[in-house]
Automatic annotation (TrEMBL), chains A, B, C:
Cofactor: Mg(2+)
Organism annotation: Paenibacillus turicensis
Record carries keyword Nucleotide-binding: yes
Keyword presence, Signal: no
Protein name, UniProt field: Hydroxyethylthiazole kinase
């Protein structure tokens, strides 16, 4: 990894980009606080009457499908079109796609109607996009054993090419691809999956890094995932033995203290 | 209490049941995290366009009336009917019933239209259900001094028989009844009432235990209330003297570390 | 500051006023918990079908514009009219006014249609109200350098006179004015701006103090801001070096432990 990737965090802290979230009400507080912890500034606004105004003053737009409903879906599309028209990067977190037809349809509409810059999800969420328009069901690479790293890489590349965006599959090993480059990140800790919203927070970090570094979505995504993975390791070391509550707090502590040096020293790639 | 009750927690941790919450936006993050801390998996979804799909993949449905509005009331009914039709247990938390006509009407409709498996509330909330259809006002047992344990037990039994469900009245002493059996739990700490959402979290734990042990709603409810009460004691011991924030974190710590042995050793019954 | 101001906190803890919040879904949990930490009791209800009932049992109404949409705007107006009609104090937190036309229009409507008792915001939010009905743009005192304390005081006074309410401008130095009296509070810590919702929590504290001391909105506001500022200092001392998560928890700890003596000993005025 080039030195420059680690230093993208400085750009976040120096420029304090405003990150417009249209997101769920479950993890929204953690998303706002993690955005502040990395040095960016969150604004949550989901009324269709104001999303265009808010996109207009923001450096990145995050669309998180956690608690979808008709009102916010409409706002997501309206905000996304505005973001595309002014060149503001869009990060899409398709929470729970595959779990309901509403989520499937919405995810499809969002990637059809908008140009997404970064798509982040777990393997089962990203697999959904590998099937889109593929005309096949059940015979896709996506159907293969997803514990298999090679398959995850293949899915990331395929979806990145299909949607012309950066794809991040987060899990025990995080995979980032833009269709050509692929990076695998080994940082992180299983305890992250014991808290709600660590995936959502990852997406907020990606949006923060993209907002500060809009020309480098791939490197920004890698730096954001390194930040979360390394913070998870530090939080586990500090408080994992005490329990979930202390780990939660320590995770916010670790992100707020993160810097380029820690990223460089602790990064572990595939 | 039979040994088996304490071991219901193992079934939660082993089977990781998916718990569908239609809940309020105030305490939802704590509810999601406590569900994870006990070993279950939360999904929050309130759009009427998807609640049937989500019920279809869930092991229990929790309806929490904390921040009611017309959209979510409709979703609660739709989700509840689906849950009843497929035999998925429903836990109802009638937050604030008695405080507004909207809450009163909604609570009435929910127990009329749905078969509820477990109803949990504080004494004033549960009293509301004792009056329903009773044709009397003010001359009911529910009107009696509710500091009186005998009255609370009578109300729990009456409501359980009326609604054909398990009723849990939480407070200084928790009462659980299915209309015949009654258990009183002395665990807990007054500091729990200094945090928002400890009642809601109780309901999430009940839903988690019921999702993993759907044939034993009474024992599952007892085990869930023991978990919360004992966790409150452990959290108070660890951090109560520091203040509400530390106690809050320690409560999540304690639930995440809870096991059958701790439940058995620390349980205190009436 | 008179001794009596510091002792307003005792009235909050002794009377446990119910504080009706119509607020955003980002910081709502912190608002509920800080309300409990100061000794009041929160109720969050935003359905137009019940807000009048809830106002009817509450001691203060807090309108927070954080995540506005048409449904809650209507509820704010309905609740506010009821509060005015029964003499319940209203605190308005115009979050993000200036950032979108929706927020500007809503803020204007709220101050036009309702009698607000306390308005709290940062300098850029309060400046918006200095312009209202002024017929001028860009030549107002509000346009002056807002790092300038004299300008902030002038804006606070002007808006207080215009809206006939207490105005609190929070920032490095908090300014409170009712149009005649002005108090400047130097307590606080820059780290408060690293957490989401510290402004919202301030407003919840103001509403709690006003609910318990409805005849003294000016002193209640001063006492609430002292509480938050001093709690920020204590939290920073206890946990600021660890990071944002620990600071967040310590802030709740400090508010829950606050008393009149600490307020008196640590208050620092301009």
């Amino acid at each position: 990894m080039s030195n420059e990737t680690y230093h993208l965090i400085n750009k976040v802290r120096d420029t304090k980009p405003l990150i417009h979230h249209i997101t769920n009400y479950v993890t929204v507080n953690d998303c706002a606080n993690i955005t502040l912890a990395i040095g960016a500034s969150p604004v949550m606004a989901d009324s269709s009457d104001e999303v265009e105004d808010i996109v207009g003053i923001s450096s990145a737009l995050l669309l998180n499908m956690g608690t979808l409903h008709f009102r916010t879906i409409y706002s997501m599309k309206k905000a996304g079109k505005k973001a595309n028209s002014v060149g503001t990067p869009i990060v899409l977190d398709p929470v729970g796609v595959g779990a309901s037809r509403l989520r499937n349809d919405t995810a499809l509409q969002l990637v059809d109607e908008l140009n997404i810059d970064v798509l982040r999800g777990n393997i089962s969420e990203i697999k959904y996009f590998a099937h889109l328009h593929s005309g096949t069901k059940g015979v896709d690479a996506a159907e293969a054993n997803t514990n298999n790293l090679d398959d995850a890489i293949a899915i990331a590349k395929k979806v990145a090419l299909k949607l012309k965006c950066v794809v991040a599959i987060t899990g025990a090993i995080d995979i980032v691809s833009d269709g050509e480059q692929v990076v695998g990140i080994k940082n992180g800790h299983p305890m992250l999956s014991n808290l709600t919203g660590t995936g959502c927070m990852c997406s907020s970090l990606i949006a923060s890094f993209c907002g500060a570094n809009p020309k480098q979505p791939f490197d920004a995504t890698v730096a954001a995932l390194l930040t979360m993975g390394i913070a998870g390791e530090i939080a586990h070391e500090a408080a994992g033995h005490i329990g979930n509550g202390s780990f939660h707090m320590a995770l916010h502590d670790a992100v707020s203290k993160m810097d380029a040096q820690a990223l460089e020293q602790k990064a572990r790639f595939l």
